[in-house]
Design a protein that fits this description.
The structure is a single chain. The chain is α+β, with helices and mostly antiparallel strands. It folds into two domains: 69 residues, no CATH class; 54 residues, no CATH class. Strands 1-2-3 form a three-stranded antiparallel sheet. Strand 1 and strand 2 form a beta hairpin. Helix 1 packs across helix 2, helix 2 packs antiparallel against helix 3 and helix 2 packs parallel to helix 4. The longest helix is centred in the last third of the chain and has 14 residues. It is globular, with a radius of gyration of 15 Å. The model has no long low-confidence stretch (mean pLDDT 78).
């Protein structure tokens, strides 16, 4: 792990963590990572964790694009659905992104304006 200190970023804290049960990623065992904390809880959908501070910062930007508000409970799952759809689009997973966005539009029409802000015509990412 490059840094062992917590980092503040856009109202969140990125904290180093150690896993009691390591994860096997690409044939290597990962024992340490980073989690994102807001008001004492991990706000990331699926309680996601990250291998670097840079990955965590990127995920925070995606979470904010998805409409995250500190302390808000995503009881209907809309924010999590937006998060995964935005991430699919940014990462170029077009088949998955089309399915994600289609499902989102059916349940959350506001997501269309969010999605349109993500990819510019030249393929660069907004946000």
């Amino acid at each position: 792990m490059a840094t062992k200190k917590s980092v503040k970023y856009r109202g969140f804290i990125i904290k180093p963590t150690h896993f009691n049960e390591p994860f096997n990623i690409d044939g290597g065992w990962v024992h340490d990572g980073f989690i994102v904390v807001s008001k004492g809880c991990n706000p990331m959908p699926g309680a996601a964790w990250f291998q670097t501070v840079g990955e965590a910062k990127f995920a925070i930007r995606v979470l904010l694009m998805a409409g995250y508000m500190h302390g808000f409970i995503d009881s209907d799952g809309r924010q999590a659905n937006r998060f995964w759809a935005i991430l699919d689009i940014i990462q170029g997973r077009h088949d998955r992104a089309i399915l994600s966005v289609k499902q989102l539009v059916l349940s959350d029409p506001d997501v269309v304006s969010v999605v349109l802000q993500i990819k510019n015509k030249d393929g660069s990412v907004t946000g």
